[in-house]
Amino acid sequence: MASVATVTLPLPVLPEGWTGEKDFKSLGQLSGAVERSIEPVGPHFLAHARRARHRRTFSEDDRIQAQEKAKNVEDVDDGEISEPEDPMMLQREAKDWKTQDHYKILGLSKYRFKATEEQIKKAHRKKVLKHHPDKKAAQGRTEDDQFFKCIQKANDILMDPIKRRQFDSVDEEADVDPPTKKEQKSGNYYKLWSKVFKAEGRFSKTHPVPTFGDVNSTQEHVEEFYNFWYNFDSWRTFEYLDEDVPDDNENRDQKRHVERKNANARKKKKAEDNARLRKLLDDASAGDERIKKFRQEANAKKNAKRIAKEKAEKEAEEAAKAQAQREAELKAAEAEKAKADKNASKKAKEDAKNAAKKNKRVLKGSVKDANYFAGAGEASAAQIDSVLGDVDLIQGKIDNEELAALAGKLNGLKVADEIKGVWSGEVKRLVGAGKLKDGDAKNLA
Amino acid sequence: MAENGDKQTGPEPSNRVVIGVTFGNSNSSIAYTVDDKAEVIANEDGDRQIPTVLSYADGDEYYGAQAKAFLIRNPNNTVAYFRDFLGQEFKSIDPTHCHAAAHPQEVEGTVSFTVKDKGSEEDASTVSVPEISVRYLRRLFGAATDYLGKKVTSAVISVPTNFSEKQREALISAAKEAEVEVLQLISDPVAAVLAYDARPEAEVKDKIVVVADLGGTRSDVAVVASRGGMYTVLATAHDYEFAGVHLDNALIEYFAKEFIKKHETDPRSNPRSLAKLRAESEATKKALSLGTNAQFSVESLADGYDFSVTINRIRYEMVGRKVFEGFNRLVEGVVKKAGLDVLDVDEVIMCGGTSHTPRIANNFRGIFPETTDILAPATSTVAINPSELQARGAALQASLIQEYEAEDIEQSTHPAVTTVKHISNAIGVTTVGPDGEAFTPVMAAETAVPARRTVHIPAPKEGGDVLIKVVEGGTHIKVTKPEPKEKEEKEEDEDDSDFDSDEEEEETREKIWKIGSALAEAAIRGVKAGSKVEVTINVAADLSVIVTAREVGGKGGVRGNLKAP
Questions:
Q1: Where is composition skewed (Basic and acidic residues) in this entry (chain A) (predicted)?
Q2: Which of A25, A238, B499, B537 is in the most buried spot, having the most CB atoms within 10 Å?
Q3: Hey, are the CB atoms on A44 and B547 less than 8 Å from each other?
């Protein structure tokens, strides 16, 4: 690796008497180093990384690299000539070129439509060198150029892009048969089908061709795959299988007839091919667990939405019902309460009325007991009348509670002076409160 | 470290279509390799430097030069100079350059722009910097795909050396979003060095390279030790004060003053006039890199006045002197930072658009000694277009690693592989110079170990037994002040000393090798007259040394080990 630098200044002469074990004397060690990062860039870094990762020294790495390079060249050579030649194939007649497998003739049957032009060229050259008729003539076999013609024909077809496509179109050796039902059940479903579609993908006009994927492929991937294949744009043609068109100079009608027939046959084959592909896809998708899975997931999602919606609706309904019930109960309770209140107030009013009546009776009774304040004599009608008038006046001025209080004070009193005292106190209080005018109810004051 | 962590998404190595990308703050470039030669791809507008600008008008997205033109008419919906915001927090970004474009804002902790990207009637939408980057990268990759006719699957992107881990991650995920696998992020200066070293005529040698990446909004200078094709960055400097826009600003100021003299209005006071002024100043600057005169002319610059004026290069160099001096200081500073002297520098690679400016290259020519190559269009005929260097380097790296599995790349760029010891002192042998013992370096300082170097050293004329003394060596700078009266020291080159004495106070500086501690001695006996001795020094990763010496073409030889310290 390292290039050699050349220096101009000469080395010193070995001083007299210099000795060292094996002519080498170690005098010191390197003084220190700094850890730095080298930039992971450039071919020399890659070499460094290779050495570092595989723990190789410079010379080891040089050797291994050289070996690998050498091996590569060999491999390429090997690959193309290692294909054994079928003795039956060597017996082929050149005129049967339509049925010959051009890739096999050139020893490229493992590459097929993938073979590059470079590979075809190389393979052809090798075969030519091996099977050249002049070489066979040298071995004493004259007139043995049939297989050589086969090689030339194969080369003609494979080196012409149009003819090669026509041949590739009908190259059944490159087809991969769809898996049988039994094989599909064996668990290799995705692997087997992806091989089929990989082979079919060679006819695609658009690239890249999406892969079949595996069981874990995403929905987008699967959808893209099926969309691509259901809209497959194929360059496959069937000219290769045409019947030979007779020469012009024979019969023009016959020629046209054959041409028409060929065109129709091509069309028919193309249609059949499309139908075949469609069936292939239908078969693949029918057994494709992923589609089922995605559908189920989608359904589950939709259902989940619906169920959630229904549940929400039901809940809302129930909530509304409960609310209505609560409101009704509340209303009933209120009505009940109002009724009870009404009764209670009615009763209280009646009681109050009765109490007032009773109290009034007490008031009237008290003045009667006091003999209408007429002293010992019989009270005159006018006296009675005026006293009762005053009592009525006071009764009118005071409310029920004061009436009850007054009645309480008067109740049980029999002595005229005491009664008079109570009354006069009441009158004074009322005058003080401004309810009575001074001079009113003077009989009681 | 720098590649796609998710191996699931990467395409098969054999199916990769790779490009190299430079995603710059001002301009970006894309390149691919054909027959091991890197070519920069022109986009559909024919641009090889594609302005890193996106613009939205009536729901259409424009990028590159078209978008840049919208900075005049539609600045609010034009996003420019956003690369440096990627992977940054709002508080740490410098929005200066976005002043005349869409302004960055902080939205939910990320830097975003508000642009009307969905047609005029729609409301403006807020687009984050990563999203803008994805959109821009998608256009960039799209241009490469159109050019190559194959879907680009993978890329190597070059980034500044001070890009943080976060910025790298943001860039990788943005590229991933744009459906391109990032094989590796490489640093800008090293990409530039690689672009030069990958030329077929280039030879692998030990050298110190200064990479001056003078861009639009920033200048980055790095000192790179190139040792047997391996690169180690010794020091870097980043500058945001001296860059292309500052030259534009100097020109803007100059032209604005000229305009004021004539029309008494300041074109800088109106944003639209300023944008026109800026666009034309940039064009004038570019024209002055090629020719000695340039026409500056803008229709209706301000107040409806057309403005046309000619400027020559000397005037421009005067106007931009401050910035030019800034570049000088920047480069000198970084050489010092690396602990080196300008005499140690073997090559100066100038890259970035601003490097086209002849004055800068000529200034550098003055700073560095005659022996240093200044690789810029103005000073070297073999210079590669400075604007294209990094994209080319990235493309070359992409072609080198495209066959590797993502995992392989990751392992190879792992710090355990990239971090190695670099020897502090040069290792060499003593030879006989004109004035006694001289040091001849075999392995330069800062060489990454393990390393192996081989030299051929001539034996003395008469042959016989020779001594190979392996020593460490150091350098020091010898400064000689010329004394006009005494000339005896420099008898052999009189021309030089004459020249020196003409210029007063001019001192000569020389790099002198000094012999350090001895490492080993070996003897080769009976060397033929006129023959050469091959000495191989092999330093292992643990700093143990194997010295092998033999006569070229001879058998046997001497081999000895030095223990690791």
A1: 57-74, 307-354
A2: B537
A3: no
At residue B121, what are phi and psi to the nearest 5 degrees?
Answer: -75, -20
Residue-by-residue pLDDT tens, chain B, 565 positions: 444 444 445 677 778 899 999 999 999 999 999 888 899 999 999 999 999 999 998 888 999 999 999 999 989 899 999 999 998 888 888 888 888 888 888 888 888 998 888 876 667 888 999 999 999 999 999 999 999 988 999 999 999 999 999 999 999 999 999 999 999 999 999 999 999 998 888 888 889 999 999 999 999 999 999 998 899 999 999 998 899 999 999 999 999 999 999 998 999 998 999 999 999 999 999 999 999 999 999 999 988 899 999 999 999 999 999 999 999 999 999 999 998 999 999 999 999 999 999 999 999 999 999 999 999 999 988 899 999 999 999 999 999 998 888 888 888 888 888 888 899 889 999 888 887 788 888 998 889 888 889 999 888 888 788 888 899 988 888 888 776 654 454 444 444 444 444 445 567 888 888 888 888 888 888 888 888 888 999 998 888 899 998 888 777 788 888 888 7
Cis? peptide before B450, omega within 30° of 0: yes
Number of CB pairs < 8 Å for A and B? 239
DSSP letter assigned to residue B482: -
> Is B18 an interface residue toward A (CB < 8 Å)?
no
Contacts of A48 in chain B (CB under 8 A): 230, 417, 448
- Tokens representing residue B348 in the block: 């100066």
> What are the residues whose beta carbons fall under 8 Å from the beta carbon of B130, sequence distance 6 or more?
B86, B87, B110, B170, B173, B174, B177
Beta-carbon separation of A42 and B424 below 8 A: no
**Contact predicate B208/B346, CB 8 Å:** yes
Contact B105, B49 (CB under 8 A): no
Separation of CA A262 from chain center: 52
- Contact between residue B182 and residue B79 where contact means Cβ atoms under 8 Å apart: no
Q: What pTM, to 2 d.p., does this model score?
A: 0.63
Q: CA–CA distance from B547 to each of A14, A15, B226 (Å)?
A: 17, 20, 23
Helix H or strand E encompassing B226: strand B219-227
> Nearest residue on chain A to B448, judged by CA atoms?
A38
Task: Please tell me the distance from the alpha carbon of residue B197 to that of residue B369, in angstroms, as a whole number.
Answer: 22
Contact between A36 and B223 (Cβ < 8 Å)? no
